[in-house]
Amino acid sequence: MTVIQHKPVNPIAHLSAEDIEILGKELDAIRDRVLAERGESDAAYIRKVIKTQRTLEMSSRAVLLFSLFPPAWVVGTAGLAVAKILENMEIGHNILHGQYDFMRDPKIHSTTWEWDHVSPAEQWKHSHNQLHHTYTNVLGKDNDLGYGIMRVDEDQKWYPMHLGQPLWNFLNACFFEYGIAAYDLELGRNLRKGRHKTPEFRARLRGVGRKIRRQVLKDYVIHPLLSGPSFLSTLAATFTANLIRNLWSHSVIMCGHFPNGVETFSKTSIEGETRGEWYLRQMLGSANISGSRLMHVMTGNLSFQIEHHLFPDLPSKRYQEIAPQVRALFDRYGLSYTTGPLPKQVASAWWKVIRLSLPNRGAARPTTDERPARALATSGV
Amino acid sequence: MTTTVPHPPAKTSVRDRLLRLAETVTTPLLPADYLDLVAPLRAGAALRGRIVAVDRETRDAATLTIQPGRDWRGHLPGQYVRLGVDVDGVRQWRAYSVTSAPDRPDGLISVTVKAIPDGRVSNHLVHRTRVGTIVQLDQATGDFVLPDPVPARVLFLTAGSGITPVMGMLRSGVPSRADVVVVHSAPTPDDVVFGGQLRALAAQGGIRLVERHTDRDGLLGVDELADLVPDHLDRQTWACGPVGMLDAVQEHWAAAGVADRLHTERFRPTVIAPGEGGTVTFTRAGLTVAADGGTPILDAGEAAGALMPSGCRMGICYGCVLPLRQGAVRDLRDGTLTTALPGDGVLIQTCVSAAAGTCDIDL
Fold first, then answer.
1. Contacts (Cβ under 8 Å, ≥6 apart) of B273
2. Ramachandran bin of B205, using left for φ above 0, alpha for ψ from -120 to 50, beta for the remaining angles
3. Was domain B278-361 assigned CATH 3.10.20.30?
4. What is the pLDDT of residues B211-242, one digit of tens each?
5. ipTM of the predicted structure?
6. Which chain B residue is nearest to residue A110, measuring alpha carbons?
7. Domain count, chain A
8. Does residue A379 lie within any of the structural domains?
9. CATH topology of domain B48-137
10. Closest CA–CA distance from residue A127 to any residue of chain B (Å)
């Protein structure tokens, strides 16, 4: 992809500023309809998922106490992996977005929730909810575009270290939760700028350290020790479960913004952005994954990434419900709704990582914001 | 010479150690989060109750019988309990008088709820509560209680659902220990909550009951008390009912110079002049909302999605108190202005305080 401003054919050129504002109002109306209905069924749903997850996690861990017995290892590992995926995707991610804050249940609230992840909820909420969701796909602002270790857009400058990015991406996938923790700390930037000695950074670092210690102690010390003679096989099981969870969430998240068809935006394009323009950027900057109901639950409904980015704080099961209405808006406004099955989207994202590990071919494209045009304002005003 | 430093007594019991071990397994959750799935009423859990029966009292009142969690410490007759109920998926807290006698052999307690027009929680509890529902509880509290020993002559002056704390007292055996008069107002005979039981108690001679049916006879005036209960000013009186009635009663007793013989319980705050309003910032939640001078900070915060602690919503239970870091708030009941300078942490009741200018709340 290339920032929308530099494309030979601007996909939103046909929309006037007025169109974009009306589009925004139509999206607001969809949101209002969900808010009016939001209530008991959403509360019952998240409580059910939480109960299922906790039951699955504890029973899987119990089975793993006998992990020397191969069938127990297989069943326990699979169960624990699924439990961890549910916890991170459908429960943790969504609760930390404040999707269930309306319940006023202090046990299920974005300000009190802590998740099964090495990045403390507080730090993740900042980098994810405040930065990524606000500056979605804006080059130089949204660090999710390559996580600071990769180049995922032609308009990002190429450095020799990008030659290794297929490998970096694979390692990041395997240890994704640590990648996210480092990302939430802005480790690279803070080290480069010598800010690693500030009290604020050190406090955050200590927070991550504490969280890692607890997670490692649980999965790699206490649980294996409790397994007695099954110590080593349980250790292998918890490691495998974490690996599966990491690979899965990495794949799902890559599908959100990297596949073909997703647009990016230049920094200057969002100056003075209106609500309608913000919505439009979310629509064009995200991609869905098609699949079964089970698939949607296991991705935490991030398979409805477009709907999630439009309305990050609506309960996730509502995304599926409103998807047809959102899609109808895409059609009516002549925009392309990017979606596809998981293997196709993962392959598309990986191909981009591999392709952009090399410098751009042909004439160098403009790599700075030399065109004054604001993407969304070029369209008709 | 040797000195011995006394060993500090071992503070960590085996139970504590096991608990800490369990925490290392359940992190980032607590062992309680798992135990709650199977035993929500166990000792050591957050206090909850299970509704075991819902009995209709009148067309708009019902008694909920609740099995409280193991840590329930009991109540005194006349006290209230805060109940956290999920209505349309949203946790709402309200205070209700306990209407059961203390120390029931089955350990159950009851509250009696009257559905008020547009009352989200009361209507839900009266009309839509299902047996088996888990509710959140707080320990019983409140000063509307009888002293020990019970005074020889007692007057209960109640109206509407104001009978509920008094019923708790009547059921705890007060009629056998004192000369009791109950003066109760309700629109019609059928609207008298506990009508049947009150009349039966009167028929047995336990109490003298004066019912006032206001649809037919109009509101009871304090000047009528002299005829109905000639010695009312000599009695220790407990009054509970609507704001207008309590105001009149307080004035009457004060004018007679015996205000100390009157004990009142208010169910609703008296709202007087709203102030100017302002911007409220919930500092830790990072939320800022504009609130007018008639909106309690509690309501403004909830509307903005802040996780506000709350309770009776009428300024009596102190379940909603939060520190005011700076700014000014006005008490909706009497107009009192409370101000805080930067660095202060003045505790304010958010349910009866409205913004009076910019204010920062520590939440």
1. B335
2. left
3. yes
4. 999 999 999 999 999 999 999 999 999 999 99
5. 0.88
6. B307
7. 1
8. no
9. Elongation Factor Tu (Ef-tu); domain 3 (2.40.30)
10. 15
